[in-house]
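Weekly sync, protein design subgroup
Attendees: M.S., D.O., the rotation student, P.L. (late)

Item 1: inverse folding check
M.S. brought a backbone from last month's batch and wanted to see whether the design step gives back something sensible before we order anything. D.O. pointed out we never logged the input encoding, so this time it goes straight into the notes. Structure tokens as presented (419 positions):
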């Protein structure tokens, strides 16, 4: 038997409604905030992620699924959504269009890493990108959208952590302060952090190794090194969140795992899914569009992992709503009755009523048993006497009450039953 690749997961028929629930909530909150959906390819030229995500990140160095296609071109399955949307934004001339451009996507992504709870090699993201505004308003709106989305799906037990990681003007001074602090500890940190020390010291704060994590607790904090513009921007974001009643914690160790971030970064964190507690994260990335060859365009966004959200909802007892079930199952007693049941099912479906009928040539008893298993609210039985009389016997599966419903009144009857 051929088995599923490690780090991937099948979504079974009894689970898919959970995904649909999350996706519907994502689309609904995006609509309220006037976002438009975009869809980008599952794979891109590898250079996009080297330049966009950053060659000092774990994603680029260790986790990308990269291969040569038949034209000997280096291709990578997208490890995250932002770089592809930024490429799309530039390539299709949207930088010269109406701004701000408020976009969202629901996409698969791929990273080769050790599978664990809420973290797979193929995973799915709901992402938001807001191009064109340098204002703290954009940061606050993106955070509010993420906050509303989590509340809409029933997740309340999360904490919003925010930070500012500065810009190209103030971060160099902070990088030097980090190097001065870490230099005496280089013998204690992990090999990856020793590499980061020169290439990107900010990432030292993001290491999950226990020893490195403990050392990071006493490191200098970026908020002490912000330039006047970054401090003003960060203050503006906080004031807007305060005005909207959104609680948060300033966490100076949040840096995010991607090189394109600047100024505001944020995470929504839960302890209900183990050590990998970030369920949604993002921030500002004002230089990404320019780095990818576009005109300078400020931007801010976030991504939420759907697998992590589903795990969090399961662990905290949050409801996904009811699993969809048929309104009516039509059971035919003989060949002519089955044909009539098939025709009535078609009419009901055309009128928006969820209906099913037998495809296995089961007995009436077996059909009732099957209808119970799939959760049908009503079973409509048709036999020779029903065909002759022009009606069907409809049983309410919850109350066991039965009524005769003429065929030409079936749509009206079941539409009433849906209310």
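Designed sequence read out in the meeting:
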């Amino acid at each position: 038997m051929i088995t599923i690749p490690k780090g991937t997961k099948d979504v079974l028929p009894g689970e898919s409604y959970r995904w649909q629930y999350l996706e519907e909530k994502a689309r609904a909150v995006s609509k309220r905030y006037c976002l438009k959906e975009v869809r980008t390819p599952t794979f891109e030229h590898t250079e996009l992620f080297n330049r966009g995500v950053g060659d000092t990140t774990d994603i680029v160095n260790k986790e990308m699924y990269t291969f040569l296609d038949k034209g000997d071109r280096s291709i990578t399955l997208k490890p995250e959504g932002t770089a592809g949307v930024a490429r799309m934004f530039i390539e299709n001339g949207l930088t010269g269009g109406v701004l701000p451009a408020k976009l969202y996507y629901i996409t698969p992504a791929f990273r080769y890493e050790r599978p664990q709870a809420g973290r797979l090699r193929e995973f799915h993201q709901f992402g938001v990108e807001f191009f064109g505004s340098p204002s703290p308003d954009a940061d606050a709106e993106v955070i509010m959208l993420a906050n509303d989305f989590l509340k809409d799906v029933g997740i309340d037990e999360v904490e919003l952590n925010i930070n500012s990681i500065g810009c190209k003007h103030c971060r160099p001074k902070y990088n030097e302060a980090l190097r001065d602090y870490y230099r005496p500890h280089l013998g204690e940190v992990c090999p990856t952090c020793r590499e980061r020390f020169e290439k990107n010291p900010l990432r030292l704060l993001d290491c999950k190794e226990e020893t490195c994590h403990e050392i990071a607790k006493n490191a200098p904090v970026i908020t002490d090194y912000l330039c006047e513009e970054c401090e003003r921007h960060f203050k503006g974001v906080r004031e807007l969140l305060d005005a909207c009643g959104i609680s948060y914690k300033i966490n100076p160790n949040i840096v995010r795992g991607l090189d394109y971030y600047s100024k505001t970064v944020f995470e929504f964190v839960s302890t209900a899914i183990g050590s990998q507690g970030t369920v949604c994260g993002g921030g500002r990335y004002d230089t990404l569009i320019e780095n990818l060859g576009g005109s300078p365009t400020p931007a801010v966004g976030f991504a939420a992992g759907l697998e992590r959200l589903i795990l969090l909802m399961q662990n905290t007892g949050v409801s996904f709503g009811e699993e969809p079930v048929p309104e009516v199952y039509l059971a035919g007693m003989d060949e002519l009755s089955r044909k009539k049941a098939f025709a009535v099912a078609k009419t009901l479906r055309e009128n928006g009523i969820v209906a099913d009928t037998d495809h296995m040539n089961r007995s009436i008893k077996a059909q009732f048993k099957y209808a119970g298993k799939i959760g049908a609210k009503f079973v409509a039985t048709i036999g020779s006497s029903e065909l002759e009389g022009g009606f069907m016997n409809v049983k309410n599966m919850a109350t066991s009450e039965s009524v005769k419903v003429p065929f030409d009144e079936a749509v009206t009857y079941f539409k009433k039953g849906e209310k």
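Discussion: The domain at 328-418 is CATH 3.40.50.800 (Rossmann fold). The CA atoms of residues 337 and 384 lie 7 Å apart.
Action: P.L. to compare against the previous round before Friday.
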